[in-house]
Write a structure and sequence with these properties.
Arc Repressor Mutant, subunit A; three-stranded antiparallel beta sheet; transferase; Ptrans_KptA/Tpt1; about 35% helix; 6 helices; Probable RNA 2'-phosphotransferase; alpha+beta; RNA_2'-PTrans_KptA; NAD+ poly-ADP-ribosyltransferase activity
């Protein structure tokens, strides 16, 4: 499978497993899992065809590790980034002292005033390194990397979670914890 085909399938999976399963009449369970055979069948009706081997290749080679299989590879889900209500069954984790958030320069005044909101997503996404945060920020315009004082947030009772693909998640980051 070439890179263009992989990218097409990955974008389709992101849409369906994170935001709009109803677009192909797919039902996810409460933890965001979709039955792979049902996903393949309903995707094919929408002219998106892939074999189990191709699906495996998309999951295994995705540089952001967006997707995961269950143990017996009968189900698949997105690791984070959902705008739909799913329970990823994450347990609170202790983050490092500092994490990073990449955003576009245009967003800085609002963030420094109101903090970082999850908006339509289930969580605010934070990165453990500046390089990843820069890549995230570049998707939205001229990137700015914000340093988040997560150690202090944790001391003040704010919970953090670590998704299977290494993205740190929390509900909200108050402006008092953010520095440019």
């Amino acid at each position: 499978m070439n890179e263009t085909e992989k990218k097409k399938i990955s974008k389709f999976l992101s849409l369906i497993l994170r935001h709009q399963p109803e677009a192909i009449h797919l039902e996810l369970d409460e933890n965001g899992w979709a039955d792979i055979e049902e996903l393949r069948e309903k995707s094919a009706r929408n002219k998106i065809n892939f074999t189990l081997e191709e699906l495996d290749e998309v999951v295994e080679t995705n540089n952001k590790k967006r997707f995961a299989f269950n143990e017996d590879k009968t189900k698949i889900r997105a690791n984070q980034g959902h705008s739909i209500d799913v329970d990823l069954a994450l347990t609170p984790q202790q983050p490092p002292e500092y994490l990073y958030h990449g955003t576009a320069e245009i967003n800085i005044p609002s963030i420094l005033e109101k903090g970082i909101e999850k908006r339509s997503r289930q969580h605010v996404h934070l990165s453990s390194d500046k390089e990843t945060a820069t890549k995230v920020g570049m998707r939205h315009g001229k990137p700015v990397i914000l340093t988040i004082r997560t150690g202090l947030m944790l001391q003040e009772g704010i919970e953090f979670y670590l998704s299977e693909n290494g993205v740190w998640l929390t509900d909200f980051v108050d402006a008092k914890y953010i520095s440019k």
